[in-house]
Design a protein that fits this description.
The chain is of the alpha+beta class. Helices cover 18% and strands 28% of the residues. The longest helix has 14 residues.
Length: 199
């Protein structure tokens, strides 16, 4: 089974169009899974604890075109959590956001999570990976494509199949917004390929 993993869209319609076209070109059979932050919340983290809104249009960027392209399941990111926290409405889109799961299992052993749940720090900015859990985790949040196997950071090249069965593996799929990156995961072959839309 092949999976196309994409996330950190932040409501960018044009970047999402390019990535979806790229997926259709290279992996039309792949099941799409989102890594969160599909939407851009326009209320800052500092304001969020003190304000509440009754309309999604006052809280986030979205359009009918964007919603029409978001036909795939996705974990919730920190943007979705903030949107849900500060909006009090019965709008169907808000209910959809509230229903997004924290984790989605793919294949027999892998999971998808946004990654904001972990502690982050250092230079380069990296998460402190959990010591327990599945051996293969796909995530996003930092917008940087990355690969870590058994606590060793690997250099990432686009279009190269990486063996993700060699140990505890964390794959940052990168960002759709700005970078137009995604990852093709083949659960049968045990490989992940970092992809980038080329102009």
């Amino acid at each position: 089974m092949r999976y196309a993993l994409l996330g950190d869209i932040h409501s960018s319609v044009e970047d999402l169009k390019d990535v979806l076209n790229d997926i259709q070109k290279y992996a039309p059979d792949a099941e799409l899974i989102g890594t969160g932050d599909l939407f851009e919340c326009i209320i800052s983290k500092k304001r969020a604890p003190f304000e509440r809104f009754s309309r999604l249009e006052d809280v986030m960027l979205f359009s009918d075109e964007l919603i029409g392209m978001l036909t795939f399941p996705s974990v919730r990111g920190n943007q979705e959590e903030r949107i849900a926290q500060i909006t009090e409405s019965d709008e169907p889109l808000l209910q959809r956001i509230r229903m997004m799961e924290e984790r989605i299992g793919i294949g027999k052993t892998a999971i998808v999570i946004h990654g904001h749940q972990w502690e982050w720090g250092g230079d380069p900015w990296m998460p402190v990976f959990p010591e327990t859990g599945p051996d293969l985790i796909f995530y996003g949040h930092s917008h940087d494509s990355g690969l870590s196997i058994n606590n060793q950071v690997e250099e990432v090249g686009f279009g190269v199949p990486y063996d993700v069965t060699k140990g505890r593996t964390f794959v940052n799929v990168g960002a759709v917004v700005g970078d137009r990156n995604w990852v093709l995961y083949d659960s049968d072959a045990g490989t992940a390929i970092f992809k980038k839309v080329m102009d």
